Amino acid sequence: MTDHRLYAPAVPRNRGPILDVLRSILPAKGLVLEIASGSGEHAVHFAAAFPGLTFQPSDPDEKARASIDAWAAASGLPNIKPAVALDASRPPWPLSWADAILCVNMVHISPWAATIGLFHQAYDILPPGAPLYLYGAYLRAGVETAESNLAFDAWLKGQNPEWGLRDLDEVVALARENEFSEPQIIEMPANNLSVIFRRI
Fold first, then answer.
1. Residues 140, 134, 127, 98, Cα dihedral to 10°
2. SS3 for 112?
3. CA dihedral in degrees (159, 83, 6, 44; nearest 10)?
4. pLDDT tens-digit series, residues 106-139
5. Has residue 177 been placed in a domain?
6. Other Cβ atoms within 10 Å of 197 Cβ, number
């Protein structure tokens, strides 16, 4: 039998620190939508830690969705829904309500249109006060960018000119335009950030 599970090398390094942040921002119960779930390893890790929440993973890539569902099946966890096809840049999304949205390592590995769509659609499906959680590397005004992040940015743009590390000020401006709060910013390992917005 074919094992469709994919493995993302960064997940074992970042899932623990991300989980520590999520413990302080996720509701006790409800539906959590994960955008660009990738391999599905994060969804399984977080669902195991929050049995009171239901997780809805998503990804535009068919192989990723097969991996997500394979990880969920192997885990035996009852609170992970089957992965849905979702491209953040293409409305409408396949669900109309969520109590929180997670988006790990998508903003820099997608066209800017995906981030625009993320905030626009998130406003429509989140209730006031609900969190929109972003994780990844960003460029920040007045903060020296690590050499590793500059190299990563160059590599991303070499893969696709529409990819690359985003200026955090531009992301915050986009959030304001879509009626999200000013962000809570938490420094994370390996020069990454947790950036938490709240729906106003």
1. 160
2. helix
3. 120
4. 999 999 999 999 999 999 999 999 999 999 999 9
5. yes
6. 25
Residues 6+ apart with CB under 8 A from 29: 52, 53, 99
Cβ neighbours of 3 (radius 10 Å) = 8
User: How far apart, in whole angstroms, are the C-alpha atoms of residue 68 and residue 83?
Assistant: 6
Please check whether residue 168 is in contact with residue 193, taking contact to mean a CB–CB distance below 8 angstroms: yes
The count of structural domains within the chain is 1
Does residue 123 fall inside a structural domain?
yes
Reduced to 3 states (helix: H, G, I; strand: E, B; else coil), residue 106 is: coil
Query: Is residue 136 within 8 Å of residue 107, measured between CB atoms?
Result: yes
Residue 84 resides in a domain: yes
Assess if residue 50 is contained within a domain.
Answer: yes
How is 165-182 classified by DSSP, letter by letter?
PEEHHHHHHHHHHTTBPP
Q: What CATH number should be reported for the domain holding residue 170?
A: 3.40.50.150
pLDDT digit string (tens) for 10-33? 999 999 999 999 999 999 999 999
Which range of residues forms the domain containing residue 169? 11-198
